[in-house]
Design brief:
Shape: flat
Helix content: 55-70%
Order of helices and strands: HHHHH
Number of helices: 5
Structural class: mainly alpha
Radius of gyration: 27 Å
């Protein structure tokens, strides 16, 4: 086996390949500059590094108790949909095990849709509607596949 840049002990004198020279500031200098620069006077390096930092989202706040309940239920349903998606991707999971999962999602969908008329946030209404539609289509797909 040959590794570029290293020569075996019994062979002598191979010259390593030349590489293109990398230009620009070093990682160390960007890191130091980012750590020491103030937010008001961001340098170019700090501006380049900023999108890599994680974004924190504020928790959902609403004066409408139905909206808060819908968000909580959506959180659970979307988690269940992720488990369902993982099960679909696993070829070892038979279709007979997917049907009960979809039936459970249908029950949760019914509870979620019952809140829809009490929601006054169009974005939340849209998310509930899209989630319910996805569950309905998966229910149809799984139960028609069994037949």
């Amino acid at each position: 086996m040959k590794i570029d840049g290293l020569t075996p002990a019994e062979k002598g004198g191979e010259t390593p390949k030349k590489t293109d020279k990398v230009t620009g500031p070093s990682f160390d200098s960007i890191l130091k500059e980012t750590m020491t620069s103030a937010p008001a006077g961001k340098t170019q390096a700090a501006q380049m590094a900023a999108p890599l930092m994680p974004t924190h989202f504020a928790p959902f706040k609403s004066t409408n108790p139905f909206a808060a309940e819908a968000v909580n239920q959506l959180d659970g349903v979307l988690g269940d949909l992720q488990i369902y998606l993982n099960s679909l991707a696993n070829p070892d999971v038979p279709t007979s095990r997917l049907a009960p999962m979809v039936d459970g999602l249908m029950e949760k969908k019914d509870k979620l849709v019952s809140l829809l008329s009490h929601l006054n946030d169009p974005a939340l209404q849209d998310l509930v509607t899209q989630t319910a539609s996805l569950i309905l289509s998966e229910n149809t797909r799984i139960h028609t596949a069994k037949a």
